[in-house]
Amino acid sequence: MTTPVVQIVDAAAYAQAVEDAVKAAAAYYAGGTSTPDDDAYDRLVRGITAWEADHPDQVLPDSPTGKVAGGAAEGDVPHTVAMLSLDNVFSPEQFAAWTASLARRIGHETERFSVEPKLDGLAIAARYTQGRLTRLITRGDGIAGEDVSHAIGTIEGLPDELAEPVTVEVRGEVLMTTAQFEHANAVRTAHGGQPFATPRNAAAGTLRAKDRLYTVPMTFFGYGLLPLADTEPVLAARLGELAHSDLMALAGELGVNTTASTAVPGITATTTEGVLARVREIAALRAELPFGIDGIVIKADLAADQQAAGSGSRAPRWAIAYKLPAVEKITRLLEVEWNVGRTGIIAPRGVLEPVEIDGSTITYATLHNPADITRRDLRLGDHVMVHRAGDVIPRIGAPVAHLRTGAEQPIEFPQVCPRCGSGIDTSEERWRCEQGRNCHLVASLSYAAGRDQLDIEGLGTTRVIQLVEAGLVTDLADLFALTRDQLLSLERMAETSSDNLLAALAQAKTQPLSRVLCALGVRGTGRSMSRRIARHFATMDNIRAADADALQEVEGIGAEKAPSIVAELAEITPLIDKLAAAGVNMTEPGATPPSAVADNGTVTVPAAGPLTGMTVVVTGAMTGPLEQLSRNQMNELIERAGGRSSSSVSKKTTLVVAGDNAGSKRAKAEDLGIRLATPDEFAALVADYLT
Ligand SMILES: NC(=O)c1ccc[n+]([C@@H]2O[C@H](COP(=O)([O-])OP(=O)(O)OC[C@H]3O[C@@H](n4cnc5c(N)ncnc54)[C@H](O)[C@@H]3O)[C@@H](O)[C@H]2O)c1
Ligand SMILES: [Zn+2]
């Protein structure tokens, strides 16, 4: 997982890159929001490193290379022992090379390794005087850090008082757990602040903030224990001799939180294989951890090995970070979709400008709920931090506010259920369709009653909801069993409307098979596909008898769609039977089944109509005898007359029916020299088929 470098071409570009990197690092360590994502920063630093390797005499003093915190952080409290960064490896091979170089340096194989998660927060030194926590210092530039003692009392796992009155320095990571991060952003935005983009960013910003009106908790994990100047000499000597794993046990006994309290406790291993096995285990658990990790830290466990290895100016030689792929990237939020779940939960989903995270391209990410969108102050067009760990659904974090251009648009929340049109219950953070589990039923009944399906006048969504809520209808077929008395028992249902609805239902039973099929809502069978299937098979029995191969004879049904249509039709067999029993028409007028081979061996060919062999496109407003026809009805008419309907003009088009205000389709037909007809001319052509 080595990201490509930024190519630096000349000294000016190099100077600019150094300036950019120092600026980014300064913001990064101070908890600012204006940082690039880590991959982008690392690419920049690799570019700087590469250029410096070729131009060693032109290295700028500000350069981030070879420095702790990229040279950007500072402070005025000197550290007892330098607080360093870590070098990285990215693969088992690189790790093996590191262990080999360590063995050469110390003159023998490393006897024992400690393996711990690399917590993704920021390093801190906590000084205890006779057991009391007196001072908190950031890592700073490694030599001196900033005093952040004001944060004492807000960091879980870092007790005010140790179990023993010892004078020691505890080092470790301050971070925000996922829950603490959510809480911090809620509190921050409630106080009018911008939400933090990442938990790391939130921890850095919170730790350094002095005069906040509110406090938000963070968590500490210790990974170092060392003596201070006035530590009692026996203890000081002991701390200098203990193995890292023993120091961690001691820290735990003193009351300091360590990784021992997590699902990925630090362990020791004596072989490279043992270390790598643990690396894999921790990587596999990463997505489930309640805090972020960005790798695994491997240390020579024994004090003697550490001393023999020594340290460089930026990192110790006895420890290494085995980096895991970045799980956070910045990309743009393009759109928000609202999906209704099985139980009626209406969940927003963000559509992203595609971004690659850990080897997969991410185009969607969850946004939880409307309150969350408001809390994060997200807008369409925003640059957002996207987080994806393992197989978990990617999440959208906060917007990167300083990248706003002013063209961002507010995200619109739905006013009615986007699936069935009912009201929305907004009393909880997770919005829900008022129909709950019935939402799907209401939506499918409303769809079936629609103009292009069974065209049942008087059966709009409101009426469907009424029927469903009264328990009168539990599926499509129940509609046809409704009685006058039942309808009259409903509110706002007078005699006339009841009779009208019954008449409309009776009429719906006579609709052609294509519309009945469409009304069933089988995936992949919209209006025109339903017509093609119905014309091809002529009867519902034939359709149901068809296997996937037979279905593929219908134009537009491929190897992928066919089996799913077959399976879905099989699933709704009882419903289809119930509809047939209720008297719903199951044949397509004028169509002949494909294998209608007569006894004498001749195949019955469907009667040719005036449009046989033609592909017809309708555009503009219809007038005259065609005025009342919807686009769907026009297409039905074309197909009844033997033609093929299409919605776009191409070289294959044979006729374009162009009504008033016909636009680009007409122009294209003229360009291609395709025959044009007015609505009246067309009506005359298909007069026999107009019903
Ligand atoms: N996005 C940006 O603009 C930006 C700017 C600067 C740095 N960065 C990122 O920061 C990283 C470099 O930062 P760094 O110098 O803090 O180094 P680092 O985070 O890669 O590694 C060193 C740190 O690991 C931490 N750590 C966690 N668990 C540990 C454990 N068990 N034992 C010991 N240490 C442990 C300590 O805080 C230590 O200081 C780079 O990966 C870079 O991408 C990003
Ligand atoms: Zn609904």
UniProtKB/TrEMBL annotation:
PROSITE patterns with a match to the protein in the record: BRCT (PS50172), DNA_LIGASE_N1 (PS01055)
Cofactors named for this entry: Mg(2+); Mn(2+)
SUPFAM superfamilies, per database record: BRCT domain, DNA ligase/mRNA capping enzyme, catalytic domain, Nucleic acid-binding proteins, RuvA domain 2-like
Zinc as UniProt keyword: yes
Biological process annotations from GO: DNA repair; DNA replication
Amino-acid positions noted as binding Zn(2+) in the UniProt annotation, renumbered to this chain: 417, 420, 439
E.C. code: 6.5.1.2
Residues where NAD(+) binds: 38-42, 85-86, 116, 139, 173, 299, 323
Catalytic residue list: 118 (n6-amp-lysine intermediate)
GO molecular function: DNA ligase (NAD+) activity; metal ion binding
Keywords: DNA damage, DNA repair, DNA replication, Ligase, Magnesium, Manganese, Metal-binding, NAD, Zinc
Reaction(s) catalysed (UniProt annotation): NAD(+) + (deoxyribonucleotide)n-3'-hydroxyl + 5'-phospho-(deoxyribonucleotide)m = (deoxyribonucleotide)n+m + AMP + beta-nicotinamide D-nucleotide
Homology family: Belongs to the NAD-dependent DNA ligase family. LigA subfamily.
Function: DNA ligase that catalyzes the formation of phosphodiester linkages between 5'-phosphoryl and 3'-hydroxyl groups in double-stranded DNA using NAD as a coenzyme and as the energy source for the reaction. It is essential for DNA replication and repair of damaged DNA.
Official protein name in the record: DNA ligase
Provenance organism: Streptomyces monashensis
